[in-house]
């Protein structure tokens, strides 16, 4: 299956005369008077939903960033900087127009058509995580992909926002024809009797939910799962890059399309400002904070040095760009959209 970029139909342009005549008629037909001044009647504007998909190339590979929606985190501080000084965080937030009371974390799923495999990275969440989540199946179909078309799924790690939608409400696999790939360390951790989540700074109820989510969804793929050991090739052109700390067996991915390479960092970084300006800050999401910091610094340094295209799961859609060095830390330079 080939993923074709979307096209935008072009509407014929109205003539200047007909446009002005129509506009004048609209104002005269529906005008409001306030203090003797006439105003055109306001129209009802549509409420935007989540983004859908964005097509791009990785060398010779066709690729898509597909949105599953977003997760609302309240408050943003100290959620993305448990060890940050509030004054320093507030200064950074003011500089970058951040709302310290809330943060929106996008869910950007990578789809790669290598010509041999149609690969999806992670299966996404559901509305159980919030009303802004669970749009991956709809947006796949909008991109012309039936879930049954996916033959390869890489599970980067087993947090609920990455695997909760592996099965549907009927308990059946949402991607019925896929083979699944996950780090052997990640599988071993989440399938043990009682995974130790003491490193996560979440309420106990969420930890219980995360364990149940892993038990159900990983259990559903046990007959078709493949263990990824180290930095092995998953399918031709896509390699695993072990990046532990966020979880014990967390994976990033290297996608080599020949003339271009993309590194999908998944959850090594979470926030497009705080995680780059201060990679030493501890977000509540990392299980082993110290190891996660070391991994984050190493990966960001490599991306900035090599100037490699990156995709980040939780950055603003479509999550594509480059990492640049900036004032003792790093900065995110999003790609300009093309179509």
The poorly predicted ranges are: 1-31
Class inferred from helices and paired strands = alpha+beta
Q: What is the domain total for the residues?
A: 1
Supply Rg. 22 Å
Major sheet details? 7 strands, mixed
Protein name: MBL fold metallo-hydrolase
Keywords: Hydrolase, Metal-binding, Signal, Zinc
Organism: Mesorhizobium neociceri
Domain Metallo-beta-lactamase: 106-314
Structure notes:
- The structure is a single chain.
- The model is unreliable at 1-31 (pLDDT under 50).
- This protein has a single domain (53-334), classed as Ribonuclease Z/Hydroxyacylglutathione hydrolase-like (Metallo-beta-lactamase, Chain A, 4-Layer Sandwich), CATH 3.60.15.10.
- The protein is α+β, with helices and mostly antiparallel strands and 339 residues long.
- A hairpin with a 4-residue loop joins strand 5 (103-113) and strand 6.
- Strands 3-4-5-6-7-8-9 form a 7-stranded mixed sheet. The protein has a 7-stranded mixed sheet with strand order 10-11-12-13-14-15-16.
- The protein has helices at residues 16-29, 76-79, 86-95, 136-142, 160-163, 184-190, 204-220, 274-277, 289-306, and strands at 31-34, 37-40, 53-58, 61-73, 103-113, 118-121, 152-155, 179-183, 225-228, 233-235, 238-242, 251-256, 261-266, 309-312, 320-326, 329-334.
- 42% of the residues are buried.
């Amino acid at each position: 299956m080939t993923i074709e970029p979307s096209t935008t139909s072009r509407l014929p342009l109205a003539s200047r005369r007909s446009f002005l005549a129509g506009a004048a008629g609209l104002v005269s037909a529906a005008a409001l008077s306030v203090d003797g001044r006439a105003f055109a009647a306001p129209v009802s504007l549509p409420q935007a939903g989540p983004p859908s998909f964005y097509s791009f190339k990785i060398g010779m590979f066709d690729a898509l960033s597909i949105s599953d929606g977003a997760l609302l985190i309240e408050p943003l501080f100290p959620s993305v900087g448990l060890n940050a000084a509030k004054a320093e965080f507030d200064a950074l937030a003011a500089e970058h127009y951040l709302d310290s009371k809330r943060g929106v974390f996008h869910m950007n799923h990578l789809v790669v058509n290598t010509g041999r495999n149609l690969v999806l990275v992670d299966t996404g969440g559901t509305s159980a995580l919030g009303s802004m989540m669970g749009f991956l199946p709809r947006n796949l179909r909008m991109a012309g992909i039936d879930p049954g078309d996916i033959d390869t799924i890489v599970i980067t790690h087993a947090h609920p926002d990455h695997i909760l939608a592996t099965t549907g409400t009927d308990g059946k696999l949402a991607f019925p024809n896929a083979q699944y790939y996950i780090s052997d360390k990640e599988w071993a951790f989440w399938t043990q009797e009682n995974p130790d989540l003491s490193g996560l700074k979440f309420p106990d109820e969420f930890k219980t939910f995360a364990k149940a989510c892993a038990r159900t969804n990983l259990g559903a793929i046990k007959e078709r799962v493949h263990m990824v050991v180290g930095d092995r090739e998953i399918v031709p052109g896509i390699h695993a890059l072990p990046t532990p700390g966020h979880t014990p067996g967390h994976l990033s991915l290297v996608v080599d399309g020949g003339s271009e390479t993309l590194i999908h960092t998944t959850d090594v970084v979470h926030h497009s400002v705080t995680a780059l300006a201060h990679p030493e800050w501890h977000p509540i999401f990392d299980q082993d904070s110290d190891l996660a910091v070391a991994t984050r610094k190493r990966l960001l340094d490599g991306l900035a040095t090599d100037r490699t295209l990156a995709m980040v799961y939780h950055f603003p859609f479509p999550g594509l760009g480059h990492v640049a060095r900036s004032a003792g830390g790093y900065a995110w330079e999003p790609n300009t959209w093309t179509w």
